[in-house]
Backbone:
């Protein structure tokens, strides 16, 4: 499923979304996706991070007014 706003608005509560993106667009698309599923749809969200440490992710979310309250992160970037 494409991570477009239209596709995201049609997600059912127990949906699984895989986002694949070019490096240049990654952060913008990630923030758009997380804003839609966390802030707008109020879904609990599991995020598997392969390249962004948890503290950095939370700071980026705060800077973009995206709640981390219902975000569960598997951080594989931090050693």
Residues:
């Amino acid at each position: 499923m494409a991570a477009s706003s239209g596709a995201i608005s049609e997600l059912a509560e127990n949906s699984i979304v895989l986002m694949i993106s070019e490096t240049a667009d990654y952060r913008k698309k990630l923030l758009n996706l997380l804003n839609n599923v966390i802030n707008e749809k109020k879904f609990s969200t599991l995020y598997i991070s392969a390249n962004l440490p948890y503290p950095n992710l939370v700071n980026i979310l705060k800077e973009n007014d995206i709640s981390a309250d219902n975000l569960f992160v598997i951080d594989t970037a931090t050693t």
Observations:
- The first helix runs from residue 5 to 9.
- The two ends are 32 Å apart (CA to CA).
